[in-house]
Amino acid sequence: MTGVCALAAIALLCLPAPAAEITFNRDIYPILQRRCQSCHRPGQIGPMPLLTYAQSRPWAKAIREAVRAKKMPPWFADPAHGEFANNPELTADERVAIDSWVEAGAPEGSKRDTPKPERWTEGWNTSPDIVIGMPNAFAIPARKAIDYQYVILPSNFTYDRWVSKVEVRPSNYQTVHHAVVFVRPPGSPWLRGVAPGVMYAPPPADRDAVRSARETQEDILAVYTPGSAAAVFPPGMAKRI
Fold first, then answer.
1. Rounded to whole angstroms, how far apart are CA atoms 203 and 180?
2. Which long-range contacts (CB under 8 A, 24 or more apart) does 109-113 make?
3. 231 three-state secondary structure
4. Which of 59, 63, 118, 125 is the most buried (most CB within 10 A)?
């Protein structure tokens, strides 16, 4: 009988320890900080803030579905064509953690496990030497299809400049789908005749005007999309204007 008890004890000791419960404060909140809060915070493009458990808990199942479908974070580059330094996609472990958390009932966990809140920069994320902005705001109607808009913003440079950082700041993040900044040198035929500082949209019925506006060989300086950071080139690299 003694030998049986000893064998039973050994068997119990060999059992694997139960997996730790996935909680919001310890496991999910850091993921939201890394992947989501750049957009999902007040004043940004995300439709709801995800800065606290109280804000995130009602959206737990929606978050899981968006993660499963790979809709969030948004990223459309084909991995077959290289790796990108600004890829915001979740790792496999992060996806499993979110799925397990929701399956467990989205527990909050101990507040002692919560990392310090991310300190988001309000205003400029860079320290610009020069700010080039639109002279007037563009009025957006409540209900209307808006054609692609173009605006020429003169730099007024008197000599060539090398640009190492570019930041695009919409005045209303929730209304700007994206923006592309081109370097348009003096004498460029692109958008010739368009007045500087005035929003321009070619008449949709004028196919030649639409095509001439869309087709350009000018160099791209920066691209803004919701949640994107400032374009900071590696040391020793810059674009000439």
1. 20
2. 109/21, 109/23, 109/24, 109/25, 109/26, 109/27, 110/23, 110/25, 110/26, 111/25, 112/25, 113/23, 113/25, 113/26
3. strand
4. 63
- For the segment 8-24, what is each residue's pLDDT rounded down to a tens digit? 443 444 444 445 789 99
d(CA 23, CA 45): 27
pLDDT at 19: 59
Contact at 8 Å (CB) between 229 and 125? yes
Q: What b-and-e string marks burial along 129-140, b requiring 16 or more CB atoms within 10 Å of the CB?
A: eeeeeeeeeeee
Q: Mean pLDDT throughout 58-63?
A: 96
Could you identify the residue written with the tokens 């978050």?
63
Q: How far apart are CA 208 and CA 147, in angstroms?
A: 15
Taking the C-alpha atoms of residue 215 and residue 40, their distance in angstroms, rounded to an integer, is 34
Confidence at residue 180, expressed as pLDDT on a 0 to 100 scale? 94
Q: How far is CA 34 from the centre of its chain?
A: 11
Cα gap 238→162, rounded to integer Å: 6
Q: Are 184 and 149 in contact (CB under 8 A)?
A: no
Whole-angstrom distance, CA of residue 9 vs CA of residue 188: 84
Which residues have C-beta within 8 Å of that of residue 210, sequence separation ≥ 6?
A: 202, 203, 204
pLDDT digits (tens, 9 = 90+) for 111-153: 999 999 988 877 787 889 999 999 888 988 888 888 899 999 9
Radius of gyration of the chain (CA): 26
The sign of the CA dihedral 30, 36, 41, 44 is positive
Backbone angles phi, psi at 162, to 5 degrees: -105, 120
